[in-house]
Amino acid sequence: MGLYGDPDSTWGIGLELAFADDLDVDGLASRAEALVLAYPHLGTRVAVEVVDGPWTHARQALLGRPYEPGEPMVRVAVGDRGRTLFVAAHHGVCDGLGLVAIGSALTARTMTSNARGVGARRPRHGFLRRSVTRVLEAARHPPPRFQGDEAGDEGQPPDGVDNCEVAVLPRQHLGSVAMCLAVSRAFADRGGQGEALVVLGVSRRAPGAPAPDRQTGYLRLRVPASASAPDIARRLEQCAPEPRFPETSLFGLAPRLVQLLRGRLGATATVSNLGPLEGPGLWSAAMFPALSGPHAVALGFVSTPSTTTVTVRTRASEFGQDDTRSLLDGVVRHLTESPDSSRQ
Question: Does domain 12-110 have CATH number 3.30.559.10?
């Protein structure tokens, strides 16, 4: 991940699963051991923690703590008297649906997603050609950013820990159009100038029960504040996925170039939608994508048969907790006030 992505990002992602009944906590350690034996790319062990104190602080710590050499690539916390599971991992070993598969293995409850992904859609250009375009784009037209106010908050998380705000709603029918529309309008509400650049995480999987690995792709979509739902739908249909990152540093040139351009990379917001999740006893789920670039904003969307959860994640050094909550409230307001677009 560090070869081409933000070198200052921890690249941690997280998934919270809340159940209506008690989990088998006693069998968690043995299932975690079996998981890494079956999938060695996840590391040699899983860090498991039982949380008795404030759940929010534990969640933020697991998400924001850097992944140091030799440490577990998968971290797990259990709270709410054994009814809530939080799985965090380095994005280099799995993606959001990979976290769903890890949660399934650890709880011994099979969970599935109906997320459609990009199917057979392919990139228009190879990685090298696309990289040249991206470098020129970053140099000439860096993405506009949400601006944050980190001052004056009470209850601000400690240094190095991200802000994570969560809204649990009644079940919504959300698609990519509705999410991109809500982000662009929330950006305009906060005085954002120009077209919002939304990076939309998409899956390369077929719908169903995912594997604990990384099969993700990305769409980069510019969304004007004046765009309607049909406008965004048309742009999405014409948007090709980004090419895969090769496992090479281009003789050390790629990390240097990324470091030089770091302040001009990223997006207005990164959006991840795991689609509708189903599983035995699953009441709600929340996705926390990785942060990348300056003034990074990451939004996660997940639905279950009962709920839809929207999350916003920011860096505490760039946004205050209250400001992050205000940003989330703006996105949710545009989602719930646009019933027609939410069906796209």
Answer: yes
